[in-house]
Amino acid sequence: FPLNSTVFMGDNIWSKYSFNFLVDEEELRRKIAHELALEQARRQSENHKRLEQEKLIVQEEIGKAIERERNASSEQLTRAVLREKAAAEEERLKSKTFAKKLNEKERELKRLDEYYKDQLARLEERSAQFYKVTTEQYQKAASEVEARFKRYEAHPVCADLQAKIFQCYQQNPQQSLSCSTLASQYLHCVNGAKQVSGKGDNKPEFT
Fold it and tell me: Where do the coiled-coil regions begin and end (predicted)?
């Protein structure tokens, strides 16, 4: 080949090499860009997965915290309810015990009331019987005393002679012998009355 042809051919070869280099560089850039895009996508995917995992962990922790809070609140509520139930049960037992004691007290008061009413009725009955017996005994005693006094009621004996003797003694205080005849008649009358009264029920009183 001539020199100029060689030079021309050299330019063609250089141009060919330059074109091939440019093509390879562009391909390399595309590959690098593709690799970078893939790496970025992979990193984004990993970051997304990590974020999702962290979100799940956070959500799980939040869920656990909420569950713990719910359990604590439920436990506190349960304790409060149990305390209220215990207080209500204690109050119910106290009320039941108080009602039982009150019923027992009422029964005791009723029993005492019936006992005292019975004792009062017996006392009134005994008082009435005692009053009746006392009244009967008093009336009987009064009747006996009255009958006794009626039986031994004094009847003056020879009252007319007795009056004459008193009159005679008053008229003759210094001459009592003047009344001896009346005195003799009076004694005779009295002796006769004694004999008659000994046969009868009434005993006359002699003066």
Answer: 34-122
Integer CA distances (angstroms), 187 to 1, 122, 166, 172, in order: 235, 64, 14, 19
pTM over 0.70: no
Give the chain's mean pLDDT. Answer: 75
Most confident of 1-10, 124-133, 138-147, 183-192: 183-192
Backbone angles phi, psi at 203, to 5 degrees: -105, 115
Lowest mean pLDDT among 8-12, 134-138, 192-196: 8-12
Phi–psi pair at 206, nearest 5 degrees: -100, 135
Are 204 and 155 in contact by the 8 Å Cβ rule? The answer is yes
Integer Cα distance of 51 and 91 in angstroms: 58
Average pLDDT over residues 27-56: 83
Give residue limits of the domains in the chain.
Answer: 153-207
Q: Are 187 and 177 in contact (CB under 8 A)?
A: no
DSSP state of 56: H
The whole-angstrom separation of Cα 196 and Cα 177 is 29
| CB atoms near residue 157 (< 10 Å) | 20
